[in-house]
Amino acid sequence: MSEECACLLKRYAALWGMTQSEVLYEATRSHIHKQAVAGCIATQNLLDVHCIKLDNRSKKDCYGFACRTCKFDKLCRVGLHEGSWGCDDRYKHLLPSNIETST
Q: Which residues touch 29 (CB under 8 Å, ≥6 apart)?
């Protein structure tokens, strides 16, 4: 990783109150689960071999970085939210005014 990217990762993690390891884990996990949902048999087989079930959110278009700011994140993680992303009030100040903040 370049110095610039390492610095960016460190600052991004700090912005969200996470470790760099947590940021990389979440990004990698969502990438793998979305690839399996997209139909990659090899990726699904790897998840199966390691007894890792697909994340409840992985079939949703909003799954990934948006979960970090979603007011439904906890419900969605356990499969109790069928809808899409809705911005938690504490993060609305980070969005441009033209973004829909709830569904």
A: 55
The C-alpha R_g of the chain, in whole angstroms, comes to: 15
With a cut of 50, which residues of the chain have pLDDT below it? Answer: none
- What string of DSSP letters covers 41-103? HHHHHHHHHTT-PPPTTTTSTT-SGGGGGBTTHHHHHTT---S---B-GGGGGGS-TTS----
Q: Residue 8 contacts by C-beta under 8 Å, 6 or more apart in sequence?
A: none
Q: How far is CA 50 from the centre of its chain?
A: 21
pLDDT value for 96: 82
- Tokens 């048999």 locate to 41
Query: Which residues does 18 contact at the CB level (< 8 Å), separation at least 6?
Result: 26
Q: What is the pLDDT of residues 13-28, one digit of tens each?
A: 999 999 999 999 999 9
* Residue 20, CA distances (Å) to 14, 17, 50 in order: 8, 10, 24
Q: 33: exposed, middle or buried (C-beta count within 10 Å: 0-12, 13-18, 19+)?
A: buried
